[in-house]
Amino acid sequence: MNEVLLSQEVIVYLLSESLLFGLLFVAFIITPLLIKRWNFDAFTQEQFRLENRSYLVMSIVFFVMALKILLLPYFVYTIDQLSDIVPGAMCGAGIIKANGYGNPLLLLKIIILFLSGFWMTLNRLDLEAKAYPYTKRKLWFFLFIFMLLSIEFALDILYFTHIQTTNPVTCCSVIFGQMGGSNALFLGLDTPMLLLLFYLLFVLLVLMLWSKNSLGIIVTSLLFLFVAYYSVVYFYGTYIYELPTHKCPFCMLQQEYYFIGYLVWGLLLVGVFMSLDYAISRWLWKRDALRLRNFALWALSLFVLLCSLFVVVYYSKNGVLL
Amino acid sequence: MIEIENIHKIFNEKSSEPFEALKSITLHIAKNEAIILSGVSGSGKSTLLSLIASLDKPSSGKIVVDGELISKLPDLHASHYRAKSIGFIFQHFNLLEALSVEENIIAPLIPSRLDIITIKKQAQESMQRAGIAHKASQTIRELSGGEKQRCAIARALVTDPKLIICDEPTANLDKANSLKFIEILSTLKALGKTIIVATHDPIFDTLPFESRLIKMEDGRIVDE
Amino acid sequence: MHNNAFFHFLSLLLFKQKNKHIGAIFISVIIIFLLSSVLFISSSLQKSLQATLQNQPDFTISRLQAGRAVDTPTEWIEKIVQIDGVSAVTPRVYGRYFFAPNENSFLIVGVDFFDEQSNRSLQELMETTDLKSFFAMPSMLVGEGVQKFMSAHYYSDSFSFKLPNGSFKKVAIAQQLPSSTNLIANDMIVMPLELAKEIFAMEEESITDIALNVPNDAEWDTIVGKLHLLFYDAQVIDKREISKAYKSLYNYKGGLFLILYLITIITFMLILYQRYSMVYSAEKKEIGILRAIGWSIQDILKLKFYETLVIVISSFILGVVLAYIFVFIFDAPLLQEIFLGGENLANSVVFVPTIEFGILGSLFLFFALPFFASVLIPVWKIAVTPPKEAML
User: Fold this and answer.
1) What kind and span of H or E run contains A286?
2) CATH superfamily, region B2-223
3) Same domain, yes or no, for A150 and A189?
């Protein structure tokens, strides 16, 4: 059997995903009947049974989401571990590019986490309202997420069965390195412009969150996510590695850097998710979840502070910038 | 305070032998009234109580309590209503046998998200009012019938509900304890609570406080 | 947390009704214990192996004629020393010496004690050995397994080797090899080159192979090229190949256990599902009471979710701690045999404590996820208990 499929992490990961998919499938099977027969005004036994079943769907989605949150870093950890047995790879960057499924899979995972987060918010609003007003909508939404989850599960399997231990993959310095004008930034930006954009967008996002402008928050937070990704890979990362040529989003997840990458990317994703969640529940469901907004502000500020801190610490230690 | 309009409750609706437990009940109860529902077992008293307390849902009809339609509430709101407005005293007391008196009494307050110190203070007051404070740390198993009854009362009162509902409260008590229970009911009435008691105990025929006797038979109100 | 009424109540329920969960905790602890013992051992072995291999010579060269290993001529050494970047070129003689009565064998390694050694741990050992008394008479250094075996056969300070010509050669046991090298040196005997040649009856001008170091990693590939250019019939083995071979061997053994564990976990899930369906149906009345006094379905779900979490975490911690004690303090009796294999000389290894967060994380996922998945549906069933259950 393939050496990749025998490694402990991959076995654990695929087993976990299969179990979760099994549970989701249970939820998927009972959903169509729920959508079809749901009628809150009815006094029938059937309606009570359906109400109870909708709690099963909720429990399953909640449980799966909680575990998917744990499994995302575990997935990253797994591919990081695989870099030991796949020739040429120094970190996860090479492994994720080992075949065409890796990058779409990682992106899909993040999208699914975001969507299930929105689902949980909708679910809470539905339960807190007086007549389950959103039940049908949330069930349709679940079916949509389930479709994505099925694609994700298929990609999971395709991805791990198609990593070759004989073909060398490229190292992160090739994928992200900027030697000789390769990998130029989008829109022809240079580093100072990128940083300017990074801080400007952050300030703008904070202002939007303060002024509770839903549409503004959605647009700026997505832009910020995009720009922050590039800023970390091409600027702040070099201060984490303390090496001006080392540009990689994966290496910082390794033990040599005290797993700091999990914190950096975690804060960014949590912050952006909460901003989006806040904006959407304000815009679509007319709810002003202030706690959510404050969490978003905290996470984003911590993220920006943490990134800036690497630069400051490096400067105060060495007296120069990279 | 409570308006019950044309309530029906049918069990085993889909089966070949549906059983109609309540047939077209209409009843209005004012604030601070004491209602004694009497009738033999199977007459539908307990079913009516469970509908008023939102423990069960009617097959048709409307129940409005304090302007809120409680016959069709989502679970979260029904639970909230039970916790806030209802103090239920069950026939078999229905205490959690493994826990102590105090632990039983704090149970209704747990979902309220109050901190434990406030909750314990409220429980203390309630236990004092029901006269069970001296047994606070004893396990339910070690209590006598009368003590269990007082513990159940303390639990019903801990959320300071407007409505006290009792299902055959004296069925498992001796005469002395039954009289004590009636005494407690009269203080509750004096405090402004609305009281509904379902019973076939003749001791409720003569009460030290003003009350309204409603007779039920075969799922209907036959005499008021 | 301290003032949180919910957790206060949760701990009350758990503590007063602990009997319900003891069965599930017991099975969980056993499973966690077994699995983490196995994973601790395999990761510790890999670590020690890595450390031992670090000390091995970077390359060994031997002569191969038509795929058959033959003795290597000593004149190769002079030629190899000429190559730039090569250091500690050591001739070696080795082979298995069979101790006929028991069908056991020792690995005899003959080295030139006056050269610089390419094996770094051997080099250290030699610096601490009193060479004067060592060479006063034929002497050897023996691995722990050999030492034990010999003393069990009443050879406490010397051993008589039977030479191919039928005579006996008495060799004194000078010292024991450090037990930290047991993984590969358990059945090893180190002795002077000439003595080893005598035991194997080898010709004067030949040796088994030549070990050498190349301090600069970047030079490795070039050196291999040069060696092949120099001797058309040479076989060059580098340290990385040995390392990989051993690593995949232990990885495979760990993987085998995981497959076994897969079967166990399915059984475990079925047991849990059964068990908790039963436990919860017995709780129906109790949950009905809580529902009647104002707990919502979500409150019950939360209660059961945290209840399960407490059980999962406590059995996880208990299992891991027990496994840690078993492996790293008692050196894993029984399980050790499976990993090390005892066909030849009985081996014993002191496991070096290594804790990897990745392994603990994998373990936790592998255990907690099936656990939760199997109680999820029983939990939901009990949580939607209608509150009128309290009236019955």
Assistant:
1) none
2) P-loop containing nucleotide triphosphate hydrolases (3.40.50.300)
3) no
Domain boundary among A106, A138, A161: A161
pLDDT tens-digit readout, A123-172: 999 988 888 889 999 999 999 999 999 999 999 999 999 888 777 777 77
> What are the tens digits of pLDDT across the range B70-92?
888 888 999 999 999 999 998 88
Report whether A277 contacts A123 (CB < 8 A): no
Domain count across chain C? 2
Cβ distance C299 to B94 less than 8 Å, yes or no, reads: no
* Contact assignment for B96 to C289 by CB distance below 8 Å: yes
Low-confidence winner among A19-28, B134-143, C201-210 (lowest mean pLDDT): C201-210
The residues of A whose Cβ lies within 8 A of any Cβ of B are 40-41, 43-45, 48, 51, 127-132
In terms of domains, do A185 and A305 share one? yes
Lookup: tokens for C375: 């109680």
Closest residue by Cα to residue A156 from A109, A206, A215, A221: A109
**What would the pLDDT profile of A200-221 be if each residue is shown by its tens digit?**
999 999 999 999 889 999 999 9
Burial class of C253 by CB neighbour count within 10 A (0 to 12, 13 to 18, 19+): middle
Max Cα-Cα span within chain C: 100
Query: What residues form DSSP beta bridges with C96?
Result: C107
Number of independent structural domains in chain A: 2
Whether residue A86 is found in the same domain as residue A136 = yes
Which positions in chain C touch A16 (Cβ < 8 Å)?
365-366, 369
**What global pTM score does this model have?**
0.83
A112 and A214 both lie in a single domain: no
Are C31 and C175 part of one and the same domain?
no
Contacts of C11 in chain B (CB under 8 A): none
- Domain residue limits at C208: 59-213
Residues, chain B: 224
Q: What is the ipTM of this complex?
A: 0.92
Are B72 and A40 within 8 A, CB to CB?
Answer: yes
Q: What is the pLDDT of residue C1?
A: 46
